[in-house]
Design goal:
Length: 192
């Protein structure tokens, strides 16, 4: 006896099952692909946000450093100004000390019988004129000026004999020299 087997409806059902499985896998693949892309997009967005935050932080830090640099430039200018003023004050102090030192030195260099009429100071250069009752006293004064450690470039410009003054005859003279103040031990202690 022959059995009648109908294979067509079974194949039809199998084909439908395969199609459903195929469509299910396609949908599943599409969903997996969508979630992977969404995940990658989310990751990239997070990285962009993190990078932007780093850039913002660096920009803020650069702005702060620029402000500090401007302040440092301003402080440096103030420092230069103060140093310039300090230098001027030191020069004035040196001038004041120079005059005092010179006036303290003069009595040691000028012998008795020599009288100073005029002293002109121009920086370190000093011009001095006066009278003397004898030429030998002028020679003594010139010798003291030349041997002084604080003076150099001593030049006697003129000696005029028998110039009447105060009812007597005197020798008038004109001398110039360069004065370099010698730092005292107290000043060296202050600077050292």
């Amino acid at each position: 006896m022959l059995h009648n087997v109908n294979l067509l409806p079974w194949r039809e059902q199998q084909r439908k099952a395969h199609q459903q499985r195929f469509f299910g896998l396609v949908v599943l693949s599409l969903l997996v692909t969508f979630f992977i892309q969404w995940g990658l997009g989310f990751f990239v967005d997070q990285q962009k946000m993190a990078q932007q935050q780093r850039l913002d932080f660096l920009n803020r830090h650069i702005v702060e450093l620029d402000k500090q640099l401007v302040e440092l430039n301003h402080i440096e200018k103030e420092h230069q100004s103060l140093m310039t003023r300090l230098k001027v004050v030191e020069e004035l102090q040196e001038q004041r000390n120079k005059t005092t030192q010179f006036m303290n030195l003069i009595p040691k260099l000028i012998p008795e019988g020599v009288y100073i009429d005029k002293i002109k100071m121009n920086g370190h250069q000093i011009d001095m004129s006066g009278i003397s009752d004898t030429t030998s006293r002028l020679a003594t004064m010139l010798d003291r000026l030349e041997n002084s450690a604080a003076l150099n470039e001593v030049e006697m410009h003129s000696i005029i004999h028998d110039k009447p003054r105060f009812g007597q005859k005197y020798q008038t003279f004109s001398v110039s020299f360069s004065f370099k103040p010698i730092a005292s031990d107290a000043e060296e202690g202050n600077h050292g």
